[in-house]
Design goal:
Length: 331
Amino acid sequence: MSSIGVGLIGAGSFGAQHAMALALAGGFHLVGACRESPQGLEDFIARHGGRAYSGTADLLADPAVDAVVIATPHDRHEEAAVAAARAGKAILLEKPLAPTLEACDRIAAAAKAASVPLMIGHVQRFAAPLVAAKAALDAGRLGAVRFGMSAMVKLWMEANRQPWHMRNASGGGMLMTAGIHALDRLLWLVGSPVHSVTAVAQAAFHDQESDDSALLLLRFASGAAATVASIAYRDGAPFGGTELVCENGVMLIDPGGAVRIGKGAAWTALDVPESSNTMFDALVSEWRAFGRLIREGGPNPVDAASARATIACILAALESSKLCREVVLAP
């Protein structure tokens, strides 16, 4: 396969980021896109090129489309991903995998049955600071993680916020939409299954059905414990990162910048490539990894099982908050 033809399902604000990233990744070209908003689709095609499809079925029927990126509302991931798998297309599915475990399982089963690559877009796993941090942990520089803290604190009512983000039925909420980054990077770095979750989740700052704030306490099978803060303020300034206390040292991670290791009462910085836009560079790296998966096969850097584990934690957190008790995850 020379250049991989890509069809974009859901050409919204982040779909545009995908279009720019795949153009820089090498080995891809945008065939076209579909979107519910006719004017939005027209604007997207005018900016990024390609064909405007009448809908998902029209896009998937085009033999020029080898792979799809799905960037629709969360509750529509299953329908689009299952259809793409049955059409034999490689799939890059934006996080979250799906808002229910049953939908996660049906997506994974459809991809397996069709023998098509399925990679989930947890983009922060490709950010240079987190890649460097993970490599240091895997090399045993600090020993096992014992305690951790991870946060995503940001403005909720951004320009791209949509009504479906505020509803539970559509898979909305801060935790499923943005706080998931803080949770997923923590799970990836710790590298142990989560045993149980205790949480408080609520709409603390906005009049909406779904959560805008959540605090999670995770107990891992390894014996480690960690907290996650997912908070969408009405007014403030963004902050967030991950802090790890390990057997033989500590680590501070800024997902958009530096990584520092603390040992012997002194701090040293890990070598992290400089970037003017770390998260966009991570998206380009994500596309390159997707290309390798299509051309060479595994290992899959973000497979469905890993992404499902993140969803299981989120659902356990929401249940814990509702029941006011610790929720043990199924093994």
